[in-house]
Amino acid sequence: MTIVDERTMRAPVDACFIAASDVERWPAILPHYRVVRFHAHSGDEGRVEMAAYRDFGLFRWPTWWLSAMRIDRDEPAVHYTHVEGITRGMVVKWSFAPRAGGHTHVSITHAWDGPPWPLIGGLAWRLVIAPIFVSAIARRTLAGVAQAAEHSASREATGSPPHDVEPARPRNATP
């Protein structure tokens, strides 16, 4: 089963792509990300550990996964294959398409059949994991990446250094 979360960002493709592919900066710009750490990294490929929270009001459910990551600067796209964690085997693609006015349509596609649990794996994916965890985290991630890309594009348009990106909010330093 495939789910798609998408958003139009008020920034050019390059700014959106940079904010989305620079995953090591995510904990600084995405308050729901606890950890992003490369275990192996060579050029535009690597094995990256990610941990985020799924907020339920006062309760924060911790999530964790390890992915093989590949950046395609030509397309542009960012590809992941989850290799460890409950979502092992999930294939993820971030896509970027230019829109009028210098905006960018960004989509995150998650393809997976669910955990290898007899009888209930696919059902768990469709009814719980996809909508309540994956999509919820993806939507928050898109919102934070949009904020960072839009801020960067605004700073660049005014002649300020583009790397000066304000975080969405201060992050708790404890993983």
Can you walk me through this structure?
Helix 1 packs across helix 3 (121-157). A seven-stranded antiparallel sheet has the order 1-7-6-5-4-3-2. The model is unreliable at 164-175 (pLDDT under 50). It has one domain (2-157): START domain (Alpha-D-Glucose-1,6-Bisphosphate, Chain A, domain 4, 2-Layer Sandwich). The protein has 175 residues and is of the alpha+beta class. The radius of gyration is 16 Å and the shape is globular. The chain is built from three helices and seven strands, in the order E-H-H-E-E-E-E-E-E-H.
Topology:
Elements lengths: L1 E8 L3 H9 L4 H4 L3 E10 L2 E12 L2 E14 L4 E8 L6 E9 L3 E9 L9 H37 L18
Antiparallel strand pairs: 1-7, 2-3, 3-4, 4-5, 5-6, 6-7
Helix pairs in contact: 1-3
Task: Provide tags for this entry.
Alpha-D-Glucose-1,6-Bisphosphate, Chain A, domain 4, single chain, alpha+beta, seven-stranded antiparallel β-sheet, 175 residues, globular
